């Protein structure tokens, strides 16, 4: 067994709380928590604040559990990629066995307690989300097909649907639309990252679209998905979770996002190397604002609706 493999099996020193917390992918968890929170409050029923707090907490724990299981399985390729070498397992701070135990334990805990705190529809959706992210995306799709991000993106799109179900006990067209927003946003978001991080995926032999089909094809895919995403985002303004605030936000941000996608599509590969992928990095940063702003607008619309109808969250 070589030194790299040994470091994955047993930590090189006693791990601290921050090392275990890093297993939960806290930055990804931020998106999970926020979109689930919006789904919960956008639902057309009121929910007790304590029950709502518990729902978001258990959804966050479930998302973190999926992140820990992802790091457990992907420890070998994480050790090869510059972007992920400092994660707890490849850096030797946490062992694979610890990550697996934490991931499985938190998965069971989050699903059971979400069901007890809210309802079993929400718990079943959370359980399926963890299963989808770990089994369907991490273990199956990620290393097998360049469509890994397209299909696997569903895992990150479930939280607003889970939040809605926690409040209502059901799935509706509104929660499906919020799911679709995240689902369609995921490919251009990650493909932009892959354009300026392609060497990482090459080394790790992950079949990202940039590796299997090249940068030119990836740029075309980003443009196509951005056009489809813009149409979906604008159409959502005409639904019950939309409104004038959402429409204004969608018009501005989708205009900027489409411009960014066109700029990426027009790129000359030789220029891309020369200017350090500034256009791609700018598009990637904008994509983060894009999703938070859209869901923030849905949250504002929900607040206005509750205010005008005299209801309460």
Average pLDDT rating? 88
Strand content range: under 5%
Query: Regions with pLDDT < 50 over 5+ consecutive residues?
Result: 1-7
The CATH class name of the largest domain reads Mainly Alpha
Per DSSP, the total helix count is 17
- CATH-defined topology of the largest domain: Tetracycline Repressor, domain 2
Q: How many β strands by DSSP?
A: 0
Q: Which geometry do the CA atoms define?
A: flat
Number of domains: 2
Helices and strands, in order, run as HHHHHHHHHHHHHHHHH
Question: How would you describe what is shown here?
Answer:
With 313 residues, the chain is mainly α. The protein has 2 domains: 1-170, Tetracycline Repressor, domain 2 (Orthogonal Bundle); 172-313. The chain is 77% helix and 0% strand. It has helices at 3-9, 17-22, 26-42, 49-73, 75-78, 96-117, 120-141, 148-152, 154-157, 159-168, 173-196, 198-204, 209-212, 214-236, 244-265, 269-274, 278-309. Helix 4 runs parallel beside helix 7. It is flat, with a radius of gyration of 20 Å. The relative contact order is 0.11. The model is unreliable at 1-7 (pLDDT under 50).
Short description:
The chain is an all-alpha fold and 313 residues long.
Blueprint (SSEs and pairs):
Elements: H1 3-9, H2 17-22, H3 26-42, H4 49-73, H5 75-78, H6 96-117, H7 120-141, H8 148-152, H9 154-157, H10 159-168, H11 173-196, H12 198-204, H13 209-212, H14 214-236, H15 244-265, H16 269-274, H17 278-309
Helix pairs in contact: 3-4, 3-10, 3-17, 4-6, 4-7, 4-10, 6-7, 7-10, 10-11, 11-14, 11-17, 14-15, 15-17
Structure keywords:
single chain, 313 residues, mainly alpha, Tetracycline Repressor, domain 2, 2 domains, 77% helix, flat, disordered N terminus
């Amino acid at each position: 067994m070589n030194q790299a493999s040994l470091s994955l099996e047993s930590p090189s020193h006693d791990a601290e709380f921050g090392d275990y917390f890093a297993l939960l992918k806290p930055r990804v968890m931020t998106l999970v928590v926020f979109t689930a929170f919006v789904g919960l409050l956008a639902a057309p029923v009121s929910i007790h604040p304590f029950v709502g707090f518990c729902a978001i907490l258990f959804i966050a724990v479930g998302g973190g559990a999926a992140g820990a299981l992802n790091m457990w399985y992907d420890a070998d390729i994480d050790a090869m990629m510059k972007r992920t070498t400092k994660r707890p397992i490849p850096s030797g701070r946490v062992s694979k066995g610890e990550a697996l135990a934490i991931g499985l334990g938190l998965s069971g805990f989050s699903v059971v307690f979400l069901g007890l705190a809210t309802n079993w529809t929400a718990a079943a959706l959370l359980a399926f989300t963890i299963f989808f992210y770990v089994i369907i995306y991490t273990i199956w799709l990620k290393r097998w097909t360049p469509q890994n991000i397209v299909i696997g993106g569903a895992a990150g799109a479930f939280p607003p649907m889970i939040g809605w179900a926690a409040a209502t006990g059901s799935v509706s067209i509104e929660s499906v639309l919020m799911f679709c927003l995240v689902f369609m946003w995921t490919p251009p978001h990650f493909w932009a990252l892959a354009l300026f991080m392609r060497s990482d995926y090459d080394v790790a032999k992950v079949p990202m679209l940039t590796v299997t089909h090249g940068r030119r094809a990836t740029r075309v895919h980003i443009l196509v998905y951005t056009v489809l995403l813009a149409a979906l985002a604008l159409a959502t303004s005409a639904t019950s979770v939309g409104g004038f605030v959402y429409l204004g936000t969608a018009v501005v941000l989708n205009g900027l996002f489409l411009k960014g996608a066109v700029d990426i599509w027009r790129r000359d590969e030789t220029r891309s190397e020369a200017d350090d992928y500034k256009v791609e990095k700018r598009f990637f940063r904008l994509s983060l604002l894009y999703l938070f702003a859209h869901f923030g607008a849905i949250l504002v619309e929900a607040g206005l609706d509750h205010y005008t109808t005299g209801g309460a969250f």
